[in-house]
Write a structure and sequence with these properties.
Layout: H1 23-29, E1 34-38, H2 61-68, H3 75-83, E2 87-102, E3 117-120, H4 123-131, E4 135-138, H5 144-150, E5 155-159, H6 160-165, E6 174-177, E7 182-190, H7 191-195, H8 199-233, E8 237-240, H9 243-252, H10 255-263, H11 270-280
Parallel strand pairs: 3-4, 3-5, 6-8
Antiparallel strand pairs: 1-7, 2-5, 2-6, 2-7
Length: 281
């Protein structure tokens, strides 16, 4: 394989250096040169990034690809906002649609969420659970296995590829394919460090980022299909929603859109602008 640059890359996976929630600050401060974090980890300073977690807004793979493509109307708003934290977005890492995990009962209707403690990984996802009568509980990806095993939560949401990689079939037995949100991760680099590189080094990183971004995005459907099959092979029950059930969820969670708009500048603000841009995709 041809070497692209003289940059030495050291990879620390599985939160060896920082937890997902700590990555934005670590990258922005320069404690590490680059890191991967769920996009919702930027919602504290930039609540508009949670556009991807509004219920059923990005309801097809085609819409997701358009929204996350380099230079898209959505990214032209989000990437500069994230840059204010001291990090430059290199690419969006696809993770698929959000699914619900439970034990003994599928999560097919708003009533199935009532009074249940549900693992979430972002504030807007928490608002979704609250709108359905559930009790959202923030649990990181690396800690969700124990949360299910110990009964800290009754149900949870994640991407199906996480079910496979974390062997969550050992602690949960049912997947409800809601696809109520698009899960996105970001590879972000410290802006000062990146700007200190020479032109050849920058080009190498940017080219490699585009290749990696496209490779994962194009393979996402296949990755998810493999994860669903692994879940089936391990005796998990896979439940799909009908159009009527999706409609019931949309109606019950309509207030999440209102909350998002309120948090992002109100009527005419950046959040409402992003929703309109997303609806045009």
């Amino acid at each position: 394989m041809k070497k692209r640059s003289d940059i030495k890359v050291e990879i620390y996976d599985s939160a060896q250096l920082y937890k997902d929630s700590e990555v934005p600050q670590a990258v922005g401060s320069g404690a590490i040169e680059a890191g991967v974090a769920s996009i919702t980890r930027y919602a504290g300073t930039n609540p508009e990034v949670d556009i991807f977690y509004l219920p059923f807004l990005f309801d097809s793979e085609k819409k997701v690809k358009k929204a996350t493509a380099p230079g898209s109307s959505i990214r032209k708003v989000l990437d500069p906002a994230i840059a204010k934290t001291g990090g430059t977005v290199l690419y969006y890492q696809a993770y698929g649609g959000a699914i619900m995990l439970s034990k003994g009962q599928a999560m097919k209707s708003p009533q199935d969420f009532k009074d249940k403690k549900v693992r979430v990984f972002g504030k807007t996802l928490g608002s979704f659970v609250s709108s359905l009568g559930g009790k959202p509980t923030m649990v990181s990806g690396s800690e969700q296995y124990l949360a299910y095993q110990r009964g800290t939560v009754d149900a949870g949401m994640t991407g199906v590829s996480g079910v496979k990689s974390r062997k969550l079939w050992q602690v949960m037995d049912t997947i409800t394919v809601t696809n109520h949100a698009d899960i996105e991760f970001l590879l972000v680099t410290n802006t000062k460090w990146f700007n200190s590189l020479n032109a050849k080094q920058k080009k190498a990183i940017q080219e490699a980022s585009l290749i990696a971004e496209k490779a994962v995005r194009d393979e996402m459907a296949k990755i998810e299909a493999g994860a669903f099959q692994a879940a089936k092979d391990n005796k998990m029950k896979i439940v799909n929603l009908s159009k009527a059930e999706v409609a019931a969820f949309k109606k019950a969670s309509a207030s999440v859109y209102d909350d998002y708009i309120k948090k992002t500048g109100g009527k005419g603000g950046i959040g409402e602008k992003l929703i309109k841009l997303a609806e045009k995709l």
